[in-house]
Design a protein that fits this description.
Length: 341
């Protein structure tokens, strides 16, 4: 009788032990099946950056479906302050986030963020996107990557689109028939790699392809639709119908120019870059002559994949095509309106 009781006790102990082990095992499993990714954006309401972010959110869901890993994205906005952004990154690191994605405020100043991402001797993965740090900052340590588009290529494609339209509609574009296109240019934020390259190379491409240009005015409108429409209003007052071509470093500024042009009887050919939803709508309506699709979807997908893979495995999947070991540059496509003429 006593022996029987003893063996019951023994079995109970074993059962409790097994249950605790199973609970512990599943709890551990649960813990590794969830990763936290911090995102810091340079500004709120940037149409193109918002599009990249939506693609990241969608890709987080895809990743979860494919791998069973729950990806938690926490997004903060730096409101144009590098100091605020550094604090946000520091907080993510201290809270034990598994990876951090940064849309830099000041692209010349990424070293501090790269260094902040080393916690208790461990490299926290950092993926910069859209606003490209200088190469030395990316190479400062392991686990630092950049995703973006090739700024020069976007400019060349814009230039080619202008020339193609000129060949197809010479009279519509060259209104005074002098064989030269009188242009104004709305430039992006000063110091931004895309603004610098797009301003230079779109002009160079047009001229090299044999279409002479004459500059009426050019100025930065900081990627911003309202600022672009204010500048365009001034230029219309100064140059009126002489404006034949409006070259814009992004779609939002092209839309700003169109906001004003549509209130006048002046016809000018307006070109953007990005292929945002509003940009594509204007293209379909024939208001925007052409844009360059900078593939926000693939950009967002790549940012999320790099962050999640590094967080989960410490290495990247073979599917990702890297250039110079640390860069993903997405393919771009020029899009010309089919509603012109
Ligand atoms: C886009 C702009 C955007 C900027 C923000 C550029 O690549 O073309 O639309 O405002 O990035 O950094």
């Amino acid at each position: 009788m006593r022996n029987r009781k003893r063996s019951y006790n023994f079995i109970s102990v074993i059962l409790v032990f097994l249950m605790v082990s199973i609970w512990f095992y599943f709890d551990q499993e649960q813990q590794t099946k969830s990763i936290q990714i911090g995102v810091s954006l340079y500004l709120e309401n940037d149409t193109f950056v918002e599009k990249i972010l939506s693609a990241m959110e969608q890709e987080a869901l895809n990743y979860e479906e494919e791998t069973g890993v729950n990806v938690i994205l926490n997004v903060s906005v730096a409101n144009g302050s590098q100091r605020t952004q550094n604090e946000q990154v520091k907080r993510y690191v201290e809270m034990g986030y598994d990876a951090i994605c940064v849309n830099l405020v000041d692209r010349t100043n990424a070293a501090a963020i790269v260094d902040l991402g080393v916690f208790e001797g461990e490299d926290v993965p950092i993926v910069f996107f859209n606003r490209e740090p200088v190469a030395e900052d990316i190479m400062r340590r392991d686990m630092v990557y950049y995703v973006g588009s090739d700024a020069k290529q976007s400019a060349v494609l814009q230039g080619q689109a202008v020339v193609e339209c000129y060949q197809n509609y010479p009279k519509l574009m060259d209104k005074n028939g002098d064989g030269v296109l009188q242009y104004v240019m709305l430039e992006g934020e000063m110091g931004h790699q895309d603004a610098i390259m797009r301003s230079d190379y779109s002009l160079q491409t047009i001229v090299n392809m044999g279409v002479p240009l004459h500059k009426l005015a050019s100025e930065t409108a900081d990627w911003n639709r309202k600022r672009a429409s204010d500048l365009m209003e001034q230029w219309i007052e100064s140059y009126g119908d002489d404006i034949e071509l409006v070259l814009c470093n992004n779609d939002d500024m092209a839309l700003g120019a169109l906001d004003i042009l549509s209130k006048t009887s002046i016809k000018a050919a307006v070109f953007g870059i990005d292929a945002t939803d509003v940009g594509i709508q204007a293209l379909d309506e024939g208001a925007l002559w052409a844009t360059v699709d900078c593939n926000s979807k693939e950009q967002g997908q790549a940012v999320l994949r790099i962050a999640a893979d590094l967080a989960m495995k410490g290495s990247l999947s073979d599917k990702l095509e890297l250039t110079q070991q640390r860069y993903v540059r997405v393919p771009l496509i020029k899009k010309i309106s089919t509603s012109l003429g």
